[in-house]
Amino acid sequence: IQIHLQRNVLANARAFCPNYAFIFVAMMFFFVCTSPILLGMLGAVGGCWSHAMRSEQFRSRPWTLQIGAIQVPLGANTKRLALSVATLFFLNLFM
């Protein structure tokens, strides 16, 4: 019975995947738009990202990671990754 059930679930997921994705996106949109705190938080995060990406200091000045006496310069992708992790942590606190 487990194989039959698993086959049915997989066939269902393949057939109705666009419907599930649309419902998921619609529900997330509904949850965010009906909460003033989430709207304000998403606006603040978007504004901070916009400011960071347009800032000349962010783009031109290299970040360095210092471990003991060793200094490692961090590239632009690493800086974006650091901002992404902080953003995901911040979003997790409010959602």
Question: Could you characterize what this model shows?
Answer:
By secondary structure, this protein is mainly alpha-helical. 79% of the residues lie in helices and 11% in strands. The protein has helices at 2-33, 36-54, 56-60, 76-94, and strands at 63-67, 70-74. It has a two-stranded antiparallel ribbon. A hairpin with a 2-residue loop joins β1 (63-67) and β2 (70-74). It is extended, with a radius of gyration of 21 Å. The model has no long low-confidence stretch (mean pLDDT 81).
Strand segment count: 2
Note the gap between the termini.
38 Å
| Content of β-strand | 5-15%
- Largest sheet strand order: 1-2
- The count of helical stretches stands at 4
Order of helices and strands: HHHEEH
Helical residues, percent: over 70%
Radius of gyration, Cα only, in angstroms?
Answer: 21 Å
- pLDDT averaged over residues: 81
Describe the structure in brief.
The protein has helices spanning 2-33, 36-54, 56-60, 76-94, and strands at 63-67, 70-74. The chain has 95 residues and is mostly helical.
Topology overview:
Layout: H1 2-33, H2 36-54, H3 56-60, E1 63-67, E2 70-74, H4 76-94
Antiparallel strand pairs: 1-2
